[in-house]
Amino acid sequence: DTAVSQTPKYLVTQMGNDKSIKCEQNLGHDTMYWYKQDSKKFLKIMFSYNNKELIINETVPNRFSPKSPDKAHLNLHINSLELGDSAVYFCASSQGAGPLVKLFFGSGTQLSVL
Amino acid sequence: AQSVTQLGSHVSVSEGALVLLRCNYSSSVPPYLFWYVQYPNQGLQLLLKYTTGATLVKGINGFEAEFKKSETSFHLTKPSAHMSDAAEYFCAVSDALQGAQKLVFGQGTRLTINP
What we know:
The radius of gyration of chain A is 13 Å and the shape is globular. Chain A contains no helices and eleven strands. Chain A is mainly β. Chain B is an all-beta fold. In chain B, strands 2, 4, 5, 9, 10 and 11 form a six-stranded mixed β-sheet that branches. In chain B, strand 6 and strand 7 form a beta hairpin. Chain B is globular. Chain B starts with a strand and ends with a strand. Classes of the chains: A mainly beta, B mainly beta. Chains A and B meet through strand 5, strand 9 and strand 10 of A and strand 4, strand 5, strand 9 and strand 10 of B.
């Protein structure tokens, strides 16, 4: 069983559309994250939720809205998609939210905006 | 602000040879340092981490890394490469004073193993 699963794996869409990426973890963790990997492969944190509460909210356009319906799920909704949103988006989870926690990553969602 | 620089986006070694992946960091506070590995079509996995204490850290799959404060480095090594080590490797730093886990990653190094 996949510990952290993301859907879809690939997402190709037109500029201006609204899309969502879903993430689920079956590890019983209480903290989840979204990271964005740009074309130069740099991974940058976007959001983090601990027990469904937003604890990290980096400088991300308002078009990106995370939603955590429960501790096992963290979805990412993106409005009015732009070319610059093309990237690989990784979901991750951890038990606890401190600076030493081990992150478990999903395999990523490759978003291509045309 | 913290940052990580990985020297060499692509490293190629022969099977059985030494693996050396370089990582330099910048941090204004004592750092926590990590190496993550990403195998094809999988998510990132933690290889090892440095917090405090012993500067030589051993991780999974025979990898180890040494924290050198004077050189602001945290290079990853493995004495003898195996074909299964072919993957993307990411160095990361975390602000030890932060309340939440907020890793800053390098751009990754792709390791290729030649038979």
